[in-house]
Design brief:
The protein is mainly α and 162 residues long. The protein has seven helices and no strands. 86% of the residues lie in helices and 0% in strands.
Length: 162
C-alpha cells in the first residue's frame, strides 16, 4: 500500500491529509452524537409522570437530571412555563441551538467529500501530462514509455475516490 501511495505522485499527500481529516471528523461526530443520544422514550415517560405529580417545577428537575437534545429543549420550554407567549419562542431557540450542535463540523466533512475526488482527478490529469511528455521525449509510443504516467494517473484517481 505504501508503494502504491508513493507511486501515485505528489497529489497523494493532499489526498492523504483529506483522508485523515475526514476520518478525524467522522470519529468526532460519532463520539459527540453518541454522547448526546439519550433514552428519549424513558425521558418522556419520566417527564409525563413528573408533570402529573408535581407540575412544571418537578418536570424541570427531571430535565436537569437527563442529558441530551430532547431534555434541553423541554427544559427551555418548562423554564418559561406560565408565560404562553414565550414558551414557543424558547423551544424554537433551544431547538436551533441543539440542531447547530448536532450539525457541527458537517460543513467541513462535506467539503472534504467534494475536494478529495477532485484532487484525485487533478492527479489523473497530472499523470496523463507526464505520460504525454514521456512520449514526446522518447519520440515513440511504446507501452513502457507511457505506463508510469498512466499508473500515476489511475492511482491518484483511485485514492481520491476512496
Amino acid at each position: 500500500m505504501v508503494e502504491l501511495f508513493l507511486d501515485g505522485g505528489p497529489f497523494m499527500y493532499p489526498i492523504l491529509l483529506l483522508l485523515l481529516g475526514g476520518l478525524a471528523l467522522v470519529v468526532e461526530r460519532f463520539r459527540s452524537l453518541s454522547q448526546s443520544q439519550a433514552d428519549s422514550d424513558g425521558f418522556m415517560e419520566d417527564l409525563s409522570k413528573a408533570v402529573r405529580a408535581g407540575g412544571p417545577k418537578k418536570a424541570l428537575a427531571v430535565c436537569e437530571g437527563h442529558d441530551g437534545p430532547v431534555s434541553n429543549i423541554c427544559k427551555a420550554g418548562l423554564e418559561k412555563a406560565g408565560k404562553a407567549d414565550r414558551v414557543e419562542k424558547a423551544i424554537e431557540n433551544a431547538g436551533s441551538l441543539e440542531m447547530a450542535f448536532l450539525e457541527k463540523n458537517m460543513g467541513w466533512l462535506t467539503a472534504i467529500v467534494a475536494i478529495a475526488p477532485m484532487m484525485g482527478f487533478t492527479g489523473t490529469v497530472w499523470g496523463m501530462i507526464g505520460a504525454f511528455e514521456a512520449i514526446e521525449a522518447a519520440n515513440d509510443i511504446s507501452p513502457a514509455v507511457v505506463a508510469g504516467g498512466i499508473s500515476q494517473a489511475l492511482l491518484t484517481t483511485a485514492f481520491g475516490l476512496v
